[in-house]
Amino acid sequence: MANVTSFEVGYCTHPACMALKGAGFGSRCFPSRAYLISTERSLHLWDTGYSFHFHDAAQGIYALYPTITPIHLGQDEPLIYQLRRIGVHPNDLSSIVLSHFHADHVAGLRDFPGVPVVCAAEGWNSVRALRGLSALRSGFLPGLIPADLTQRMTFVSQLPRKPLPSALQPFDEGWDLSGTEDVFLVPLPGHAIGHLGAFVREGDAWMLLASDAAWAHESIAELRGPSELSFLIQHSRSDYYSTLRKLNRLHEKKIRILLTHQASELAKK
Question: Domain Metallo-beta-lactamase: where (predicted)?
Fold first, then answer.
């Protein structure tokens, strides 16, 4: 059995309709969440949210990122501070799992020196050499990546691959993160190359950390996607909707799905 603790680590603002068709042009706050996954054997972080390193990395041409998507981070909000307040320190962590390499998911990496990192090989390989406009278009800020990251990186394909419980269909296999079969990593393609999700078993129930597979729960429940303009920065429209249909099936089975940037009642505001 595992336990998941959610942290809001800053937020960005953007027109609601970019995240959900028909939600209007009004600006909305989209929290950036990170999660602490506790199992009987280990502690793992799921993404890092924003950090003050973001502002250092968003210089020169990269300053376009916060110009297009304004970032807000309180003085006490970086994940490293929030974890300290509950008695968790970097050396307590078995790994940081990166759902993908967009800046709002990796900005805190430098706050956790030496902690092993788990990610998808194709995700890392798709961004590692990007610079300038190519990096920006992929939501990647090279300055956020620690110099020794590759030395402490494990790819999900190196983890044991196991069948998933039938309750999690249409997903049938996943990578066992902790060796306890309480946390399984799965591909959720569409938003970014190598985009990952995590099934976590809390008691008798499963939940899915779905990262950016959708930006609003209405998308999952109603199969209503984001603005078509969003696919200028997302990897694959066809893969996105294929993943969304799978999430819809989970939703119909009452499996809890947590989204990194979910804003409450987005479509109703």
Answer: 31-261
8 Å CB contact between 175 and 164: no
| Residue found under tokens 């709002």 | 104
Structure tokens at 186: 């799965």
Q: Give me the number of domains the chain comprises.
A: 1
Per-10-residue mean pLDDT for the chain, 269 residues long? 96 91 90 97 98 98 96 98 98 99 99 99 99 97 98 98 97 97 98 99 96 96 94 95 99 98 55
Q: What is the DSSP letter of 2?
A: -
- Count of residues in the chain: 269
SS3 state of residue 164? coil
As a whole number of angstroms, the distance between CA 174 and CA 183 comes to 9
Question: CA geometry: angle at 265 spanning 211 and 106, to 5°?
Answer: 25
Written as six digits, the tokens of 188 are: 């959720």
Between β-strands 183-187 and 196-202, what pairing exists: parallel, antiparallel or unpaired?
Answer: antiparallel
Residues 6 or more apart whose CB falls under 8 angstroms from that of 18 comprise: 226, 227, 229, 230
Which residues are CB-contacts of 6 (< 8 A; sequence separation ≥ 6)? 33, 34, 35, 258
Locus of tokens 């946390």: 183
pTM of the model: 0.95
CATH of the domain at 101: 3.60.15.10
Give the C-alpha separation, 75 to 52, whole Å. Answer: 9
Tally of CB atoms within 10 A around 143: 16
**CA-based nearest residue to 96, from 107, 86, 87:** 107
Range of the structural domain that residue 71 is part of: 3-268
Task: Write out the two tokens for 126.
Answer: 């798709």
The pLDDT of residue 268 is 37
For residue 97, give the DSSP letter.
E
3-state SS assignment for residue 3: strand
